[in-house]
Structure formats: structure tokens, C-alpha cells
Design a protein that fits this description.
D-Amino Acid Oxidase, Chain A, domain 2; eight-stranded mixed β-sheet; seven-stranded mixed β-sheet; alpha+beta; FAD/NAD(P)-binding domain
């Protein structure tokens, strides 16, 4: 079936047209069923998904405004799929860089020096027009988008304020928690007045970053590698006079100078930039000179104004637990690693979606607290695997660019640049085409999944740059365009969704009846015969996080026996934590 590829949706989910939805009544004595601590992209995404579902939530954030620190500068395809679901993908894709700005990744001696190679990546205008060359490779309705966090966060906050069930309280510093059998109380200070404040909730979710007060308060601790590679300076600066050479300026540049090396990126395509500079072993991080780093990155002197310099040590750390009683962790509060590949914020957004539907099920009564253990198991395993993938990026790039002959205007220098450029284009492609990380996450060994027809993952699954669509339980549901121009993702319900694939798919009345008896919201979606080539099974049961829960060619004989454990009911001792994830 032919349909437009990678054309962003302008349609909004029906629930999102009714801010606040049909929220259930808040339990007696609680300020809200859920309190989120931390108002960055992860905390706001969690609040957005809960608000989209009409569930009351309070979001507490210490800062009085969205961030001015451009920490993350890529919203990956998976996050864009979630933003599409909330009706935000188009708005986000129009923000950040100019619409006609290519997002090429370029490898250079310096910005104004020699170019070794580049990966040509599309502009947002090309994505909207359906002419992005990489669209044929990416089986998604939403390609990744290069947008700095400083432009993403205001969009999320503006959308949050549409939902009557979401309360955003900025200027509140959280200083501790007390937890009992029935609730958690957050203790803090209203920073403008110094007045102590407290909020009582059924559950508290810490999305408050790497220095998380919530994580500390419940005694969870980071484990892993406290240092991965060279320390860094991140230099956010403004320049109206910096001219990037060439007919096709890139978005990201690798560069290598005599004293520093690192990465450089455009933030707005006009005057704001971010430069990451590595501080080599033996150099003092605090006294490292950002002006020298900028001169080496660009390759010459130029006028600029430094906005901020952040000095930091890259780590690969994952919390030893993502749940303690009624307190859960997500995003950097749960895992932190070197900011390469754009994996950190996006893993946190996936945490938020994985947690939100479970909190919604618990709130509405069609899920049990065991679902929260499933979240902790599944997302901790992803944190471990993704952090290792992020840590693997970059070492060979610095080694390849370190040869001083690359800077020489000689025949030998030109030949070496050609050789190094070809090698970089071969070995670093997976960083820019990381389909395995973005689309290939597969949960394994979780009680939140049912046994499916496939016993083994498909051949070729796994790895940063590889993705093989399947309906193996635990995988992301593969993308498919419908004749009407919608993606299958656009038709999924807010609860479970049963795909009936092809004209010969079973009626599955038993599953529908079982869902009704248990009280599980179930949407049934009939797909055309052409979808069989993608989904490979006649029945596919999809969780609200758009991961496959079960698949088969015939409906199960005992519908409740399939559905109830997926939602945390009737769990047996055998259904325990066997952690694992790939992708």
C-alpha cells in the first residue's frame, strides 16, 4: 500500500481536545494522586501524558522558568512518535533551527579548516515535504529532530497549561520526603517567600536530574562508572559575526585542536552556538580556558559573547533501583551518561511514557502496583544497555582526528584527510542512524509481557544502528501507514489496543469480553491485508507505551488468563524479575 512517508500528523488525539479529560476524583486527604518532582523534559512529558489522560497531577520545579542550558539538542524518532501522539510533533519540528537548515554532521580539523567527511541529514522543511532522503531507511512516521532543550521546554510547558488536571508549581525547592503505607508527603520551601510547603500524594516520581533529592531521600544510589573519558567544558555562546563556510553549513561539527578537541553545534541557525571541549588528562578543569577552546574549534579569532560555561565530568551511572515503595525515579534521576547520541533525554522521555500508563491504570483500577515493579525492571535494563551504547561513542573519533598532519597543507596531509574521512564515514554511521537505540528497544523477561508465537528475536536484531521490525512481545510496535494518511500509531487507544491484521483475522470476541470483564480499556483496530507484511501475525496486542504485549495467529483460549497478569493481577511467584533489554 502506498502512503506518504514520514509526513508529520496535524491531527490531535480526541482526548487532547478536551483539556483535563474525565479525571477520577482525587483520593481523600491527598493533594493529588501523583506529584512529579522536576520540571525538565522528562517531568513535563510525564505530566503531559497524565494530563492527556485526564489524571490529576502536581508538578514541582525549583526554577521559575524553563532552562537556559542547551544540554540536549536532539529529540529522537521515538520521542517524536510520543510527541505526535500528544499533538505536538509539528510544533516541535518547526522550532529550533530554521526550516531550511540542513542537520549534517561534519568532521573537521576546525570549523574553518579542512573537512574530512560528513553525514548529510535533512532539514525540517524536507521532512514536512516528504523529501527527506533518510525517510526510506527510517520506518517511523516521525524522523528525529534537532532541537535544543532551550526551545523544546517552552513548548512542553505551554502545552501543559492546557490541561485542567495538571498543576505546575515553579519556585518550589524539594528538601525531603516522608512515606507511609498509603501516601508520600513531599517537603519543600517556596523560594520566593521562604515559606515551608508540603504536598501529599499517592505516589511521587523523581524527575529531578542527576543530583536528585528524591533519589537521595529514598536511599537509592547510583552505581556504574564515575568517570568515562575526558572531562568537559560546555560553552554556550552568542555570535552575530561567525560565518560557517561552505554552501551547506552543518548542524554538528567534530573538531580537534592542539589543546582541546570536541564537538560544536548550531542552536538556532543564526547566532547561538554550543561548543563541547574536552579537557585532557593532566589539565585542570577549573582553569581550562574557554576562549582558547573556541579559537581552536572555529580555527580563527572571531567576536562572540559567552553566555555560560558548564564544567563537568562524564559518567555512566544507573540507580540501583527505580522504585522504593511509593516513590519512583525517571530520567537523569535514574540514569546518567555522557551526552553523545542524544540518548539521555530521550531515554528519560521513554521512562515517562512507560510509567505514565501504569500510573493511569493504577488510578483507574485496571492495574495493580505490580505494574510499577514492571516499570522499574524494564526501564532499568534499558538504562544499563543505553548507557553502554552512549559511552562507546567518540573514542575512535578523537583518535582518528588526533594526527597533527591532518592540519597540514601538504600532499601527505590531503591524502591522510581522505583516508581518515573514509574511515570515519564507515565506522561512525551508527551514531547518526541509530535505529537500534531509537526504535529497537525490546523488553525481555518482564511479567508485563505475555509469551508470543516467536521464541527468538528476529535475525539481525540488536546493535546501535540496526533495527528489524517484528511483533515479538516487548518490542516497539512497527510503523505502518494507513490509506487515509494516518499512521497506525495515530489510531491506538489510551488503554490496550488489539490489532486485527488482515481480512482473515480472528474476531477475538473472547479477548474483548475478557477486557470488559476485567475493566481494561481495549481498542480494537482492524488493519488491511497489506499490513500483514509488517506485522506477521493476525492478532497483535499493544500496550499504551506502544510496545507489543502479545502476538499470535489465533486468539488465546483463556482471555482473562492472558490479560489479567499483563495488568498486574493474578501474578504467580514465577512471574518475577528477569531483567533484560536489547536495542
Amino acid at each position: 500500500m502506498s502512503a506518504p512517508r514520514n509526513t508529520p500528523s496535524t491531527a490531535r488525539p480526541a482526548q487532547a481536545d478536551r483539556p483535563g479529560g474525565s479525571a477520577a476524583t482525587t483520593s481523600a486527604g491527598l493533594d493529588a494522586p501523583y506529584v512529579i518532582v522536576g520540571g525538565g523534559p522528562v517531568g513535563m512529558s510525564l505530566a503531559l501524558d497524565l494530563g492527556w489522560r485526564g489524571i490529576p497531577v502536581i508538578l514541582l520545579e525549583q526554577s521559575t522558568h524553563t532552562t537556559a542550558n542547551p544540554r540536549c539538542n536532539t529529540t529522537n524518532a521515538r520521542s517524536m512518535e510520543y510527541f505526535r501522539r500528544w499533538g505536538l510533533a509539528d510544533r516541535i519540528r518547526r522550532a529550533g533551527l530554521p526550516g531550511d537548515q540542513a542537520t549534517d554532521a561534519v568532521y573537521t580539523t576546525s570549523i574553518t579548516g579542512y573537512e574530512l567527511t560528513r553525514f548529510r541529514l535533512s532539514s525540517s522543511d524536507e521532512v514536512f515535504a516528504g523529501t527527506a532522503p533518510e525517510a526510506a531507511e527510517w520506518p517511523t512516521p516521525e524522523l528525529q529532530h534537532r532541537i535544543s532543550q532551550i526551545y523544546l521546554e517552552p513548548i512542553l510547558e505551554q502545552e501543559l497549561r492546557r490541561y485542567a488536571s495538571v498543576t505546575v508549581r515553579r519556585g518550589v525547592r524539594v528538601e525531603g520526603l516522608t512515606q507511609d503505607e498509603d501516601s508520600v508527603t513531599v517537603h519543600g520551601t517556596e523560594m520566593a517567600t521562604g515559606r515551608p510547603v508540603s504536598y501529599r500524594a499517592g505516589y511521587v516520581i523523581g524527575c529531578d536530574g542527576g543530583a536528585s533529592e528524591v533519589r537521595r531521600a529514598v536511599g537509592a544510589r547510583f552505581v556504574g562508572d564515575p568517570r568515562v573519558g575526558d572531562r568537559r567544558m560546555s560553552i554556550h555562546f552568542r555570535s552575530e559575526k561567525l560565518e560557517i563556510p561552505g554552501p551547506r553549513p552543518g548542524w554538528w561539527y567534530w573538531w580537534h585542536g592542539e589543546h582541546h578537541h570536541g564537538a560544536f553545534m548550531q542552536l538556532d541557525g543564526h547566532s547561538q552556538y554550543l561548543c563541547h571541549a574536552r579537557v585532557r588528562e593532566g589539565q585542570d578543569l577549573e582553569s581550562a580556558d574557554p576562549h582558547l577552546a573556541l579559537r581552536e574549534a572555529v580555527g580563527r579569532d572571531f567576536p562572540y559573547e559567552i553566555i555560560d560555561v558548564v564544567r563537568w565530568t562524564p559518567r555512566r551511572m544507573v540507580a540501583d533501583t527505580f522504585r522504593r515503595g511509593r516513590v519512583l525515579l525517571a530520567g537523569d534521576a535514574a540514569h546518567i551518561w555522557v551526552n553523545l547520541g542524544g540518548f539521555g533525554m530521550n531515554a528519560g522521555i521513554a521512562d515517562a511514557v512507560a510509567l505514565s500508563w501504569r500510573l493511569a491504570a493504577l488510578h483507574a483500577g485496571w492495574g495493580t502496583p505490580d505494574l510499577l515493579d514492571d516499570y522499574a525492571l524494564e526501564r532499568r535494563s534499558v538504562g544499563e544497555s543505553t548507557s553502554r551504547a552512549a559511552a562507546s561513542i567518540g573514542g575512535y573519533i578523537e583518535d582518528a582526528l588526533a594526527d597533527p598532519r591532518l592540519h597540514e597543507d601538504t600532499v601527505e596531509g590531503a591524502e591522510l584527510r581522505t583516508q581518515v574521512g573514509a574511515r570515519l564515514h564507515e565506522v561512525d554511521r551508527a551514531q547518526w542512524h541509530s535505529l537500534g537505540i531509537q526504535l529497537g528497544t525490546r523488553y525481555a523477561g518482564s511479567p508485563g509481557l505475555a509469551a508470543g508465537t516467536d521464541a527468538e528475536p528476529p535475525e539481525g536484531e540488536g546493535g546501535m544502528g540496526s533495527y528489524v521490525p517484528s511483533v515479538l512481545p516487548g518490542v516497539r510496535l512497527p510503523h505502518f501507514w494507513l490509506a487515509e494518511g494516518d499512521a497506525v500509531f495515530d489510531r491506538l487507544g489510551q488503554g490496550l489496543t488489539l490489532l486485527r491484521v488482515g481480512s482473515d483475522a480472528p474476531e477475538a470476541a473472547g479477548l474483548v469480553e475478557a477486557a470488559r470483564d476485567v475493566g481494561i480499556p481495549l481498542t480494537v483496530l482492524d488493519l488491511p491485508d497489506e499490513a500483514g507484511a509488517v506485522y506477521q501475525r493476525r492478532l497483535v496486542l499493544v500496550r499504551p507505551d506502544m510496545h507489543v504485549a502479545w502476538s499470535g495467529d489465533e486468539q488465546p483460549e483463556d482471555g482473562p488468563r492472558l490479560l489479567r497478569p499483563l495488568c498486574g493481577f493474578d501474578r504467580t511467584p514465577a512471574a518475577t524479575a528477569g531483567e533484560g533489554a536489547s536495542g
